[in-house]
Amino acid sequence: MRIAFGIEYDGTDFLGWQRLSHGATVQGALETALKRVADEPVETTAAGRTDAGVHARCQVVHFDTDVRRDMRGWLLGTCSNLPRSMAVTWAQPVADDFHARFSARLRGYRYRIVNRLVRAALDARYVTWERHPVDAQRMHDAAQALLGENDFSAFRAVSCQAAHARRFMKKISVTRIGEEVFVDVEANAFLHHMVRNIVGSLLLIGRGEQPVEWMGELLAGRDRERAGPTAPATGLTFLGPKYEAHWGLPEQVTL
């Protein structure tokens, strides 16, 4: 039987999604909890691997098991064995050919920036602080150069293991609400550090240190060394993947 979970987590105290032998990870914590519910080892697959310190609003995972539990049992049993920074928000059976990663058609991220003279306190774990004034409209205008299918080598981490750098960017927007600036991105898939590298470059444009046209020049140049610095992980949240309706998943993750 194949089961899908929706999971939210605060990534601050984790070394990312992927299970590691030398530190706490989201996958490790989830599989430890599932082992207690199933009374046997359970291996999970996620829609996307988040980096150390990155959060998730709805990470989708799947796992296979022959253990019989009702969905309420899987949901509440797993939650009760997770750290307080994680929660399973929904659980349901899925078709055997559903794959959390390969069945996803789109993925979305949000990057939050507190733009004021003093740092954040209450939201410090979930935002990045930028003390210099930034122009969100300039950032938004610059970001539109990234739309469509492109080679995103300029925003790809050196450690990225993807076979190629071509990705389809469906949407990208930069908006301001009071002291907060939001960068919302939706694409078919992302490269390692891609969103954080894009944000790092957009901030230089927002501060007036680079022209609006610079973003398109970076994209065309495909040179990571010319682009801006990698923005901190703190402000990044994986909003979740999107799947075709025939999989019967919750509306939250359906196209």
How are the elements arranged and paired?
Layout: E1 2-9, H1 26-38, E2 44-46, E3 55-64, H2 71-80, E4 86-94, E5 106-115, E6 128-130, H3 136-143, E7 148-151, E8 166-177, E9 180-187, H4 194-206, H5 214-221, E10 236-242
Parallel strand pairs: 3-10, 5-6
Antiparallel strand pairs: 1-3, 1-4, 2-3, 5-9, 5-10, 7-8, 8-9
- Count of individual domains: 2
CATH superfamily of the largest domain: Pseudouridine synthase I, catalytic domain, C-terminal subdomain
**What is the CATH class of the largest domain?**
Alpha Beta
Return the string of H and E elements. Answer: EHEEHEEEHEEEHHE
State the helicity in percent bands: 10-25%
Counting DSSP H or I runs of 4 or more residues, the number of helices is 5
Provide the gyration radius in Å. Answer: 19 Å
If you average the pLDDT, what whole number results?
97
Protein structure class: alpha+beta
Instruction: Indicate the overall shape.
Output: globular
CATH fold name of the largest domain: Alpha-Beta Plaits
Largest sheet: 10 strands, mixed
What is the terminal separation in angstroms? 25 Å
Strand content: 25-35%
* Poorly predicted regions: none
Care to count the β-strands? 10
